[in-house]
Design goal:
There is one protein chain. This protein is α/β, with parallel strands linked by helices. It has a single domain, classed as Rossmann fold, CATH 3.40.50. The chain contains two helices and three strands. Strands 2-1-3 form a three-stranded parallel β-sheet, sandwiched between helices. It is flat and about 30 Å long. The two termini are 18 Å apart.
């Protein structure tokens, strides 16, 4: 499964969830909302993922 993590509050918050998903063999992409947001890039990543997770 291809997962997309959208980070709202920094990278440290998702590390535990990320390790669990990696252990299950999932492909993971991360989008960080803390800086300048490239909405086209975010939309492309959302369309390509099977599951979207907000952290």
């Amino acid at each position: 499964m291809k997962l997309l993590y959208v980070l709202k509050c920094g990278r440290n918050k998702y590390s535990e969830c990320l390790l669990e998903e990696l252990a299950e063999g999932n492909e993971i992409d991360v989008f960080d909302l803390s800086g300048d947001i490239d909405y086209k890039d975010l939309l492309d990543k959302v369309e390509a993922c099977d599951k979207l997770l907000n952290v």
